[in-house]
Design a protein that fits this description.
Layout: E1 7-9, H1 16-27, H2 46-58, H3 62-70, E2 74-79, E3 82-89, E4 97-102, H4 116-120, E5 133-138, H5 156-169, E6 175-179, H6 182-193, E7 198-203, H7 220-235, H8 238-245, H9 247-256, H10 258-266, H11 270-278, H12 291-304, H13 307-324, E8 336-340, H14 350-356, E9 360-365, H15 373-376, H16 378-388
Parallel strand pairs: 4-5, 4-6, 6-7, 7-8, 8-9
Antiparallel strand pairs: 1-2, 2-3, 3-5
């Protein structure tokens, strides 16, 4: 554990025996019977998992990813009793806008790596130098190389306060925040807490849509969004309910079997499931969702043994929601940008974003991308972040 307020450089160095053990466990998997349907309605399909396992055990190279990560400036600092791992890449433009970007589940910092270059050095990636950001990408507590909390209460509110402390500790007196999935919840909470220095946010998942707020359902677009949410709540929320109520139970499988961990992480939403499946069944990958990128993410969870602690964050968020039931959340008073991607669990209508954020200053419907927008379409995601924060420079 790092000392209070200390920021230490960090490098990844996984022992070879951990990689040998991983391959052995994959090869010794006891497989379930094949599903009795031709789609994902019974869960992750056996063909997908067997092809994933074959590539993972025989061709995938963790050391390539480790080398890629260690080429980036990584750090560790202790905030509120938990070691926080983060990437901090400064732009060559000293006037760049600082941004903290938060991943979600079943993602990690892996899903954000390909936006680092375009955000920090835009002139090398189709942008202009004035579009530059200083980028901070932390691993959520209990994810990746961040520490696993040993006390209760690490829900979005506590993480949001930790992120504000991190940006202050790095010397940023003004900054913006971005997030999707769990990261969207953290980012939304930061805006409502209004820490000193936070001047704007951008998200790509409308977390308020799951918070019991009444939204208009008059237009075709609004009704379609509600239908998508209802479908998710009825047929697609199995992982959510388990992690929200019994993270420890599923954790026994996630810590013991890499194939169980991989299947659990693939079984998120329909759009991303079929896109990830494409990477292993011989078809062209969807955007940047390649076999190696997908396995970088899963292997990170396995080697850090964070399947259970990451799942536990859902329980923490659920407990926080119960405690906050009936209470009106604080208003967001800073500018808000929102992008809805076509493959997301539901496509957010502008009217819903405006209902959630009276200070909405940017809204766009992207042409491509889904739940893992930054991972799948890094350049498109980068363009959205640039546009959302353009007026704040």
């Amino acid at each position: 554990m790092t000392k209070d307020n200390e920021i230490k450089a960090f490098k990844i160095k996984i022992p070879e025996k951990a990689l040998t053990d991983l391959k052995s466990r994959i090869k010794n998997t006891r497989w379930p019977n094949k599903e009795l349907v031709d789609d994902r309605s019974q869960g992750v399909q056996l063909e997908t998992m067997k092809k994933l396992a074959k590539y993972w055990a025989n061709s995938y190279d963790w050391r390539t990813f480790e080398k890629r990560m260690n080429a980036l400036p990584q750090f560790m600092t202790n905030i509120d009793g938990v070691d926080i791992h983060f990437i901090h890449v400064k732009s060559s433009n000293k006037d760049a806008l600082p941004a903290i970007i938060t991943h979600g589940w079943p993602g990690s910092i892996v899903e954000l790596l390909d936006v680092v270059g375009p955000l920090t050095e835009p002139e090398k990636h189709g942008g202009h130098i004035e579009d530059a950001f200083h980028v901070v990408i932390p691993s959520l507590p209990g994810y990746g190389f961040s520490g696993q909390p040993t006390d209760l209460g690490w829900g979005p509110a506590r993480i949001a306060k930790a992120w504000a402390e991190l940006m202050s500790r790095l010397g940023y007196d003004h900054y913006v925040a971005q997030g999707g999935d769990v990261g969207a919840s953290v980012t939304d909470t930061m805006a409502r807490q209004a820490p000193k220095g936070l001047i704007g946010i951008h998200t790509n998942l409308l977390v308020t849509a799951l918070a019991g707020i009444k939204f208009p359902e008059e237009t075709k677009e609004e009704r379609a969004a509600r239908e998508s949410i209802n479908t998710f709540n009825t047929f697609g929320k199995g992982y959510f309910i388990e992690q929200d109520t019994r993270p420890q139970t599923i954790g026994y499988a996630l810590s013991d079997s890499p194939i169980a961990l991989a299947a659990w992480m693939l079984d998120h939403d329909t759009d991303s499931y079929y896109k990830i499946t494409q990477a292993f069944v011989g078809k062209k990958p969807s955007g940047n969702l390649t076999r190696d990128n997908i396995l970088d993410n899963i292997t990170l969870y396995w080697l850090t043994d964070t399947g259970t602690s990451a799942a536990r964050e859902y329980w923490e968020s659920g407990q926080a929601a119960i405690q906050a039931a009936g209470q009106k959340p604080a208003d967001v008073k800073i500018p808000v940008g929102f992008t809805t991607f076509p493959g997301e669990i539901w496509q957010t209508p502008r009217s819903w974003a405006e209902t959630s954020y009276r200070t909405l200053t940017y809204f766009n419907k992207a042409k491509r991308g889904g739940h893992f927008a930054a991972w799948e379409e890094p350049m498109l995601f980068t363009e959205e972040v640039r546009a959302a924060f353009k007026t704040l420079r």
